[in-house]
Amino acid sequence: MKCLALTFDDGPGPATGTLLSTLRKNKAKATFFLMGKHVELRPALVKRMAREGHEIGNHTWSHPSLPTLFDEEITQELRATQDAISSLTGRTPRMFRPPYGNTDDRVRELAGDEGMAQVLWTGTTLDWKLRDQKKIRSAVLRLAKRDGVILMHDVVPQTVQVMPSLIKELKKRGYHLVTVSTLLKGRKLAPGTTYP
Ligand SMILES: [Zn+2]
What we know:
six-stranded parallel sheet, three-stranded parallel sheet, 9 strands, globular, binds zinc ion
């Protein structure tokens, strides 16, 4: 099977419900790296993500560049977000993604202490900068590959708007849209490791 993981950072946002409906209509699964402070703002969407079979990862509470923080601050950013997600969904995330992709060994190890692996990406769309449906669509189609992990943002309205046509095209090209964990085909990500 040719699998691809669509991942969405920084949410949940105002348009995330629309995205969830698109995913449901197309029987596609995705992975969401959530910010704790947005979890607090939109708890119903977090519950819905979990209920509809999507994967949820930790994207810190307030989106700082983690390598600039003290150990205790990093742990606090991660732990508060873990608590917010697990109290809503009953499941504690096993993966995190560092804001801006800024990370180092210390960040990776501290996240490992909180039970999480670090998940980066194979392709980034720069959708937050493009803000254009056509450009975002062609970026994803260009970056898509077997077992790829594509980084997007569900807080970018154009990303959510282009998703119905984009998913249709990805399916036409033979991709199965799955969560990051499904991509691993039974392998478990060890806390403190980095993937892909
Ligand atoms: Zn982010």
